[in-house]
Amino acid sequence: MTQPTNGVHTANWSGVVAMTVCVFALIASEFMPVSLLTPIAADLVVTEGMTGQGIAISGAFAVVTSLTISPLAGGLNRKPLLLIFTLLMALSGALVGLAPNYAVYMIGRALIGVVVGGFWSMSAATAMRLVPTLLVPRALAIFNGGNALAAVLAAPIGSYLGSVIGWRGTFFCLVPIALAALLWQWISLPSMPAAPRGTGPRHIFGPLRRRPIAIGLAACGAFFMGQFVLFTYVRPFLETVTNVDAVTLSLSLLIVGAAGLVGTALIGRFIARSLSGTLIAVPVLMAIVAVALIPAGPWLAPVMVLLGAWGFLATSAPVGWWSWVARSLPDEAEAGGGLMVAVIQLFTALGSTVGGVLFDTSGYVTTFLAAAAVLLVGALLAALAGRAARAA
């Protein structure tokens, strides 16, 4: 019988589940403001666009952390590092919940950005420490299950809890989940000494010297930017254009999340047929949805259908991009993964920022048209990346 090539002989599924709980709390924490923009803005006496910058600042700090955590951590054992990140997640939730003003709110959001960048940069390596090589894809799929579950539940539950116990109480609800994940990780994760590897800029940015990789990462960035130009401001669109109440708002966000869970389960079939085709088709279809939301805005039924389509596409698309990293950089997956985290967070922050400025100054029509335009640029870049890869 062949021995596991990563030296792990017995799968530590308890550790995998502990990490998955952490993923759920992390994703819920990162995007919770999306469902609570209006009450946060009213309480802190700022605009909804400024409140949305809480996602932008977390993305910015995630970029910096994802590119610097490896050289800064050096030879530090990765288990206590993961525990520190999980503790920071709990601290972020408490700080945002207690925020007396906008500045403290933004500090709390910056903390969650540090956690996002550090955690995701280490996720693949952690999976390799917990299960044998052949089971690593399954472990990563379970990690991403926490992501998908948070996408289904975080926004509608956040919206509902916000209407019942307030937005501060909603953020406080994340604290015990993070502390439970911390305890579970402390008990179940093994010691994880740092593996020797390159840590300098040459190691981190090396893949960018290859044209297909550079274009592909640009396509990925355009996709996430276009997505969050629109989606960050879905709640004020639903409240002011579609005129939904709190219950209907929660139902709308639940439809987005549930459709995303279905999309995540099905997208593998399309990737198996054509990865490049999938990466091109998804942003094109999302651009169509973004434009269609403009005339459909006042009518609830078509808006719900279109948001379901948006959730189906947007939530499942990252599976395609991580598959692209694995196929394009089989020998530099760690460097490629770090770059992917940085690109996703940087362009998520950029999308939230641009969307906030447009929403505050020009309204939802300009915001949604801008999102569609950026998504189409992403589709074009994905096509160019596929052509460059074939030529290479």
Could you write a compact summary of the structure shown?
With 392 residues, the chain is mostly helical. 83% of the residues lie in helices and 0% in strands.
Total helices: the number is 15
What is the number of E strands? 0
Shape designation: globular
- How far do the termini sit from each other? 38 Å
Residue fraction in strands: under 5%
Q: Could you state the order of secondary-structure elements as H and E?
A: HHHHHHHHHHHHHHH
Spans of at least 5 consecutive residues whose pLDDT stays below 50 are none
Q: How is the main sheet built?
A: none
Attribute tags:
392 residues, mainly alpha
Layout of helices and strands:
Layout (H helix, E strand, L loop, with lengths): L12 H19 L5 H8 L3 H26 L4 H21 L3 H29 L5 H37 L1 H15 L12 H5 L5 H21 L2 H9 L3 H28 L1 H22 L3 H29 L4 H30 L1 H28 L1
